[in-house]
Amino acid sequence: MSLLTVGSVAFDALETPFGKTDKIIGGAATYITLSASYFTKDNNLVAVVGDDFPQSMIDTLVSHGVNVDGLEIRKGEKTFFWSGKYHDDMNTRDTVEVQLNVMEHFDPIIPDQYQDCQYLMLGNTAPAIQHMVVKRMKNRPKLIVLDTMNLWIEIANADLKALLRDVDVLVLNDEEARQLTGDYALVRAAATIKAMGPKTVIIKKGEHGALLFHEDRIFAAPALPLEEVFDPTGAGDTFAGGFIGHLAKTDDISFDNMKRAVIYGSAMASFCVEKFGAERILNLSKEEIQNRVNEFVKLSAFSVEM
């Protein structure tokens, strides 16, 4: 089934203990659509860039089957830019520089050919903009998945809570779940979030896996132990792309299939961190992805003798 992703396409400049990069392709929607491209072929993008954004990077998205009819290129303006530096533990980072540029006045226009998309992924951006997208869909999608972050919980809390009433799945990390609810216990935090509107909550825990909460059921997905993590930038968005990409491919939003989607999302995120930016997820094979998923299965498979 068709997937629509709305979010940022951007430039990133990164520094980790393993090295540094100048401007490379980044942005939430970039990682989401690239990840989802390995699962669904009806993969549509709404975003905005400046005229400094190279055609070669747009061609990269197109080569992965991403429909860029909804990618606005603003003449005389610059693309959103983020620069960050990671600490030695790779779990914490400092934002060095942010240039909002075209994202400061992002007005997402949904092309007519996208209006029938059954799966909507709201990549991380201001909740007011995300809510605008939901309201501009002529037909409500079958599933709306929302990603957010600590900044919006802090400075746009009212907008975020209004949006939560209109989405089906919220994806956030453990720190953000605690910040949103004021509850350190993640099980209670998930219950509080579900009471705000979403039927399903996914709490990412980085190197400790992810938790899926749906109604009264919980699924705990492991994280794959990796020898080296070069760059965690975009890993959460890559997870989201694998998750919703699998759901769109199978057109099955049951709890059991969401569990599989969490594993596929986790597998895609584990590739993402192995190189800088989106480099590692640009040329994956189906065999590589399935082998990685099998590794996740082995991590949690066991037998019981009574």
From TrEMBL:
Source domain of life is Bacteria
Keyword line: Kinase, Transferase
* Keyword Kinase assigned: yes
Can you provide one Gene Ontology molecular function annotated for this UniProt record? kinase activity
Q: Where is the Carbohydrate kinase PfkB domain?
A: 21-279
Q: Name one Pfam family in it.
A: PfkB
Q: GO CC terms for this protein?
A: cytosol
**Protein's recorded name:** Sugar kinase
Q: Which PROSITE patterns match?
A: PFKB_KINASES_2 (PS00584)
Q: Which InterPro entries match?
A: Carboh/pur_kinase_PfkB_CS (IPR002173), PfkB_dom (IPR011611), Ribokinase-like (IPR029056)
